Amino acid sequence: MDSTTRSRSARYVFISILALLAMLVGFTGDKYLPITVDEGPVVNTANTPAPAKTSKPAATTAKDPLASDPAPPLLDAGDLRTVSGVVDKQKGPASTLIQRWWSENGTGTADEGFVSWAAAQLPAEPSSIQRQTEQTTIKQLKSSRDAAGNRAASWLNEHGCDDVWSSFTSEQLSLRSTSDDEPSAAEIKTVLKLASEVASAAQDRSGSPAASQPKPCSGAKKPVRSDCSCNYPSTQATMSAAARSYLGKLSPYRKDQYAWMEQQVDLAALYAGLELPSDVGSGALLGNLVGQYVLVTRGHAKP
């Protein structure tokens, strides 16, 4: 066989092999053919870089407790003078008293002992003559009551002990300056719990008929009696003063807003005939102690 014939035979064999491969692909697809992988990078598929270790995660906020019952227009700003002076007078004495606690007990956390000590700082209950004078204030408020004021007072007496302060905390976590200290939902609960315990212990010391009265911020009503068997001190006032003191320190430019809400809560108790000004004043004194105690023992302030 000459070379030409051999070359032609080889081409026939090669073409036959190609034809056979084509038939196989037609029957089986390309799963038997070799697969090549592109080792080059694909555009825009790089992994997201890990955040820097110094970056601060965004604060998570709890659901607003007032979302299902938003506030109506609240009490008239002019009437807040009924309680503003009473509340403001307690800040100086509270600062003096808390310094005594620090000097005698240090700045460590001692919640149980603090509750007992703070309750013992309750001033002597006012005389019956002073109580009668304070009743005049209640009667003046009563004469100016209207439907809008009643709605506002009812809402404040239901939500003013806890919900408004938890809502403020949530807002402060969402909208705060880089220089703000950070509150927490857990700490505001601690503030309010300690304030309630201090008020209750103080009421036991004063013989206040707290056990026979509706719980603060329960929405329940109690009638004004001639002797006004009110809670001395006011639990509402103790809790709001504590929350205002705590939150106002952590976000100073909101202090006026917190003070305004504290006065709203205190006035609502008077407006509804639940408390007298001396109940509010003594509650504000003890609440200031609680707020300052939590700020220092939880590392937000120095004594």
Provide tags for this entry.
303 residues, mainly alpha, Vanadium-containing Chloroperoxidase, domain 1, 11 helices, 58% helix
Question: Could you explain the architecture of this structure?
Answer:
This protein has 303 residues and is mainly alpha-helical. The chain has a single domain (77-297), classed as Up-down Bundle (Vanadium-containing Chloroperoxidase, domain 1). Helix content is 58%, strand content 0%. It has eleven helices and no strands. The protein has helices spanning 3-28, 81-88, 91-105, 111-119, 128-143, 147-159, 163-174, 185-206, 235-250, 255-271, 277-297. The longest helix has 26 residues, at 3-28. The chain is globular. The N and C termini lie far apart (113 Å).
- Alpha plus pi helix count: 11
CATH topology: Vanadium-containing Chloroperoxidase, domain 1
Radius of gyration: 36 Å
What order do the SSEs take from the amino end to the carboxyl end, as H and E?
Answer: HHHHHHHHHHH
Helix content: 55-70%
Largest pleated sheet: none
Distance between the termini: 113 Å
Report the average pLDDT across residues: 80
How many β strands by DSSP?
0
Q: Quote the beta fraction.
A: under 5%
Q: How many domains comprise the coordinates?
A: 1
CATH architecture: Up-down Bundle
